[in-house]
Design goal:
mainly alpha; 82% helix; 0% strand; globular
Length: 473
Amino acid sequence: MPGAPTGFVGRLSAERPLLASGVMALALAVLCVLGARSHPGVLSSKLILNFLTAAGLVVCAPMALAALTPQRPVLRVFFLGLMVVLCGFLLSAVFGALSAPLPFAAPKAAVGSAVGLFAFFAALAPLTRSTLRLGGVGPIAAATGVAGGIGYLALDNLLSSPFSAAASAIAMTAGVCVGAGVGADYARHFARGLTPQTAAASAGHMAIAPAAFSVLAAAAWMVVVTFKTNYGMIGWRDLLGAGAEVLLASASALVFATAALALIRPSEQAAVEENRRRQRFADSWRPFRRRLPAATASAAAAIAGVLVVVALFEVGLADSVSFGVFLTLILIASGFAFVSLRTSILITVLLFVSTVFAGYVYAVFAMTAPPMTERFAALTLSAIAFSQLTVSWRNAGDIWRNARDIAQNAMCDGLRRFAVAFGAGAAAMVAASYAFAWEAGVSAAAYFAIVAGIGLFLAPFLMVALSAQFQRY
């Protein structure tokens, strides 16, 4: 029987699921209550309720509905047809196409984001269905963790901070990614033959590194933006608040997702679905694999480097010093979290190149980039999304595999994680913009989508090129 490392946190959550999840839920509830009671007025309690409502409707509900997409063609067509009717009714009512409005207030951006998130995951159902199902507790746990984080911010009188909305969006995304990672690793271990409890413990253990990177990336964001906005002084209270919020969301998603998977008893169909998913991905990736040998990937990476230089000369780079410090901190954070030099290099290169190209896109189309705080928050989300790919690339490394094999295995495992981070990250920013009345939240979500989309396009080329450089046969 193949084995896998479990670790203390994974074993505790899997072997004592009710105890671990109960203690975590109690701690989050205490933070919410203390924050609501200590803060003057009803601001904190109303903000917690608004965020839970927005996160539930914009992030959790679309992901849950997408996870329910049936596998059988007839049932899938019926389900999607029903969803098309429902989504069409919602959009028509919100945008005024129907004479009878909805009985409740629904912002256009929030409803559009919820419908778009469901459509995104429904279209990617063959890739993400099992991950969304097995990690379905993750979004709910992440929203609960953010609620506890808001209570912590209220205790420290940070609710009025200009960074609280973006920090909540980052925390929500980090928690969703951790929950999805637990589900993805559980499916992989269970398909290898591990028992459900051992697979859950190992999945929880493997989620610690991405969770740690999310916390460190949020800290890097706060160092840069507070140093810039406070005229050379780092806002340590803001940094601790953002870090605590991300930590609570990530930890709650890890514990609850691991505990839920340890309690269920899946059938062999879960292993069959995972094996079919890997086979479908290998079949669809084969044309791309044939056209991307190491020499071609290296040439494409060199061309991208030339285009980066051209873009820098044409439009420059906003806040170049702050961006350089941020990249350095992300490089250090990924090194600490993943204990891998090549993983750190890949995250940093992807983030740098994608940001330069995104700036060029904004300049070409005469679009206005978000403010500095929101722009770096979007870059933090991009770094978290890229880490879902790069950690899979690290785990796929093998001296007996060539560069294209490593890239294929990395994309097979990491693409579903990236898809969850991509969709949930944009939706979390929209949800935070509604809950916190954050005007720049929608523009920050668009900036994140552009940066992350460019990075996804470049990732396979860089994976093959860097694998060819690092691997020695």
